[in-house]
Amino acid sequence: MSESLEPTAGQPDGSESQAPKVVAGIIIILGLFSNSLIVAAVIGFRRMKTTTNYLLVNVAAADITTLLFTAMHLIPIKGPFPNGALGSFLCKFIRTNNITMVTLLVSTLTLTVLAADRYQAMVKPLKISWRLKIEKIGYVLAVIWLIAMASVSPLFVSVDQRPSINNTLCSPGDDHAAMKVYIYCLVTLLTLIPFLGIAFCYSRIISGLYFGQTICSRGSEAMAEKKRLVIVLMVLTVVFFIAFVPYGVAVVLQFSGMATRNVEELRIFSRFRIAVQYLTLLNCSLNPFIYAIPSSNYRYCFKCMLKKMCCQGITEEVNAIQLDTRRGVADER
What we know:
- It is built from 9 helices and 2 strands.
- By secondary structure, the chain is mainly alpha-helical.
- Helix 2 (51-74) runs antiparallel to helix 8 (263-292), helix 4 (99-122) packs antiparallel against helix 5 (137-158) and helix 4 (99-122) packs parallel to helix 6 (176-211).
- It starts with 18 loop residues before the first helix and ends in a 24-residue tail after the last helix.
- Pfam families: 7tm_1.
- Residues 34-291 form the G-protein coupled receptors family 1 profile domain.
């Protein structure tokens, strides 16, 4: 989130409590560890290599990026702010933490693709040509990241270090009207449209599973697994939007200037922005628990990896994971 209203250097922080930074550090470390386990499980265990799991890995990669750049963002800059290319880089990527906008968009688009893929697999199972195949998943993930980076590129181009009276500001420049229009469109289109698409997909899936009985499975266990997967993905999506919407609101308020018209409003907005930052960090750290804890396959992978990390040794082969290919989370396409 851009911090064009705050100086980039020379801010005294000795009187501030270090407790919030310690809490943030704990959340970041937990998030990096848990998301890394998700990535390692899918990469290291052959039967975990499914389209659904690869999409979840993309969410984990976005969360890891968010946590890493936020950690660097929280490190205070001592002394005068650097000039030249280094100062410009710090403004664009670290000080303003604009990379978080990219990763949030990546998560939004990935969750949208996940919902569409589940809709296609469960509601329209006969249209095989439309289904996302494992061979194409790499291209899909690359397109998601390219779209996210292209969408945020105007922000990276415009934000730069700009001299102030007593310090240096990281500011998007003087064309405030154009920047406000861009931010409004970005936040609205990349929040509202994905939300409507996801809501449509899951509403049709829920209708087919619980009401219309149009989604069938071979046996009650397979049906229960499908329902469990849909619930997990829905919870993951709802939790993400709970964290993402306040972030979008904070960005809109900051660039519109509505929250900074006087000292009191600025103080309230600063507290709100800090709360939003913690909410984003919590979301990134809790995501792995949301979709890993209900899955016996992920739990088994975690158990194996943790035992290896603790030097206890694992004699089971990777292929020994008892993974029912009929399960939605392990649908081999």
